[in-house]
Amino acid sequence: MTHAEATARAEFLRSELHRHNRLYYVEAMPVISDKEFDMLLRELQDIEAKHPDLLTEDSPTQRVGGAPIEGFTQIRHTVPMMSLDNTYSEEELTAFFVRLQKGLGREKIDCVIEPKVDGVAITIRYENGVFKHGATRGDGQTGDDVTANLKTIKSLPLRLPKNGPQTFEVRGEVFMPRAVFDKLNKEREEAGEQLFANPRNTTAGALKQLDSKITARRQLDLVFYGIADATDMEVQSQEDMYALLDHAGLRKADLIWRADSAEGLLKAIRELDERRRSLPYETDGAVIKVNAFEDQRQLGVTSKAPRWAIAYKYQPEQAETKLIAIDIQVGRTGALTPVARLEPVLVSGSTVSNATLHNFEEIERKDIRIGDIVIIEKAGEIIPAVVSVKKELRSGEETRLSPPTHCPGCGSRVSKTPGEVVLRCTNPECPEQLVRRLEFLAGRSALDIAELGGIVAEALVKKGLVKHPLGVFDLTLEQLSNLNLGSEAEPRVFGRKNAEKVISALDSARKLPLHRWIFGLGIYEVGSSTAKELAKHHASISELISSPLLRDVVLESELEERRLDCSPQTNKNKSRSLEERNLLKEQEASIRSELNAVQQRLVGCGFARYSKAEAGSPDKKQRKITTPIGPVAAKAVLDFFSSSEGGETLRRMEGLGINPLSGPQKAGLNGPLAGKTFVLTGTLESMSREQAGERIGQQGGSVTGSVSKKTSFVVAGRDPGANKIEGARNHAVPILDEKAFLEMIGEPEPAAQPAPKTIKEDLFG
Ligand code: IVH
Q1: What class has domain 428-509?
Q2: Full-model pTM
Q3: Mutate to test the pocket of ligand 1, among 83, 222, 255 (most ligand atoms within 8 A of CB)
Q4: C-beta 225 within 6 A of ligand 1
Q5: Which CATH number fits domain 668-764: 3.40.50.10190, 3.20.20.10, 3.40.50.410, 3.30.870.10?
Q6: In the chain, at which end, N or C, are there fewer CB atoms within 10 A of the end residue's CB?
Q7: pLDDT tens, 286-332?
Q8: 629: DSSP letter
C-alpha cells in the first residue's frame, strides 16, 4: 500500500468507525456486527502502526467507547471503565497467554474464565453500605446516571449487609433475560408492533428510558464481574472478589473456570461454548482474566484495555438451509436490495426465514443461485446473512438471478452510480419508493404517527389516495376510515377511531420542530443527528434551500481536492519536471488562498473549527477544518432542494401552511421562556415528558435532570419523584402542576381525562 493509499484508507476507516460507534453507543442501532467492527478497527490499527504519521488524536483507536446520550446527568467514573481486547481464534488466545508468561516471567499463571455477557456495561456505587448511584460506561470517563432505572432491577440490593463492604464500587453487565426477551417479542408480535432486534439493544433502550416505569416493565437483570473500589476490604484477587460479591448479595457469573496454562484456557472456553446456551443471558464469548491483583498491576494497562484480560469471541452461529427464492425490495431511496427467502431454520434460538444478500454484486461474487443449499450466519445481530453456498450439493436445477434491469415496483429502468454497488430505481414516482418514504415520514423519529405503518402506507399508495408523502395531509377522515387494509374478498377497514388518531397526529405534526421535518423528508445521507445539526444552524426549511453554510462546506471540500491534485507534494506530482512543478505550485497557491478564505468564513460564523495539525503531516502549511456536517451530506441537502422532487415537497409544504422552525437553539433564543430552566418529573397527562421538553425548548427554555438553585421551575406530573420534589422545596423552586405548566407554555388544557390526581393530593394529601 502506498502512503497515499494508506492515508485515504485510514481516513475512510476512521469515519466508518466513528459512524458505527455512534450507531452502537448513542443510537443503540448497530448495523454491523461487533466482529466486523473489530476487523475495521484492527485494519486501522495496522495502518497506524505502519504509518505512525497517520495517527490522529481523534482516531477511534484512541478511545474506548462512544459519547454519552443526552438527557441524563453525567457521572464521572472514579476509575475509568475500560474495554477489552478481543481475540477470535485459539491461536490468538494462546499468544495472549504467552504474553502473560513473558510479562510475569513465569510459566504458570493463575487465570479465571467467565462468560462474556452480551448486555450493557454498568458501574454501581455503594456508600456507607447504601446504593448511591449507577452509570453506564459512556466514553469510559463519564457515563449517564441511570440510578433510577437501575433501581428497578430486583436482584440489585439497595443496601449491603452491615459486616460487608461499605464503600463499594462494582462493575457488571445489565442484561435482559432471554426468556423475558422472547415473551416481550411474542406480545409485540401479537399486538402487531415492531419486534425488538436482540436482547442487548433492548437492554440499552430500556436503560436509556427517561421514565423508569418503562424500564421496570423490561425486567432487566445484572451480573457483576469486577470491582473499582472496595477501600475497606481485603481483596487480593478475582477469587476474593467472588467471595465478596457473594457476601454482599451481588450476583456473579453462573459459570467460572480456573486455569493456569494455555491448554487449560482452551479447555475452559470449549466447555463454556458447550454450556453457554443454557445460561439465562446471551453470551458472545468468554472473558479471561489474570486472577491475582498483584499480577494484574504488574502487567498494567494500555490506553484502552488491560493487558491482564482478554475477550475470546465465539464464532457466530451458522445453519444450513435451502434458498427458495430471491425477492427484490425497493427502498426509500430507490435502492434495490435482494432478500433471500429461506426454508425456515433455527439459528441462535430463533427461526429464520429471510436473510439479507446485501447487493447483486455479492450474489455474483458468492455465486448464489436459487435452489442452493446455503450457510447462513447470525452474529447476535439484527438480520442473518448468507455467508456461503454448498456448491457440492448442487443438482444442476439451481437457477441464477441476473441483476434486474427494471424496477420490480414500477418497471422503469434501473441505474447504477459509478463507484457504487447499489442498483437504483430512479423513477421519483415509483409507488414502492413512495410507500417506503411515507412510512419513513410517519416514523418515530420523524412525524411520529404511530397508526401509520407500512401496511397503511401501502394501502394508501395502492388505492391512489396518496401520490406524494405529504399527500397524507390532504386525506379526509372518511377516506382514512374506509381504507381497506385487507383484500376485496376479505376486507378489513382501518376504522374511524384509527383514522381520528391519524388526523390528530398529523395536526400535531405541523408544529414539530424543524429537525424532525428535515429528517422525515428522507434526504439521502441525512440521518437524525445530521438533521439536528442542520436545524441548529438554520431557522427554517427555506434557510436550507440555498444555505451559504452548506455551499461553503461543499466548496471547501472541492477546493481541497483540487489543491491536492496540483500539490507538488503528492506522489503523483513528484515525478514531474521542475518546470511543471513550479507551475503547479502557483496554481496550488491560488487555490490555497481561496480555500483559506472559505475556511475563515466557516470558522468565523462558528460553524467550523480548525482541527489540530496532524502529527507528522507532510503538509503543515494547509490548515484543516472540521464541520458538524460533512460535504457529502451538505451536497445531498442542496441537491435535494434543487431537484424536482425537492421542489414539489417545498410547494406542498407551502400549500399546507407548514413551516417548521428550529427548536431551542435558534428560534427560541428570544422565546418567552428564554433563560428558564425546567426539571420535569412524574407523568403528564397531555404529552410525554419528551414532548414537554420540546415545547420548552421551542420557547427558549431548557430542561435539566436534577434540581439545583439554578432551576426556575419543577413541573410535576402524576407520581413525581420524591427527590425532585424535595430538591424543589430545599431550593425554594416553584412547583408547577400540569395545568399551570400548560398555561405557561400557552397550550390549551387537554380534553377531560380520567380525573388525574392533583399534585396536592399526591404530595401532601
Ligand atoms: S471484565 C477492564 N468480564 O465486555 C474491563 N467484562 O468487551 C474488564 N463484559 O466492558 C471487563 N461480560 O461490559 C468482563 N465476565 C465479564 C464480562 C465483561 C461482559 C463486557 C464488559 C466490558 C466488555 C468488553
Answers
A1: mainly alpha
A2: 0.53
A3: 83
A4: yes
A5: 3.40.50.10190
A6: C
A7: 999 999 999 999 999 987 799 999 999 998 878 899 999 999 999 88
A8: S
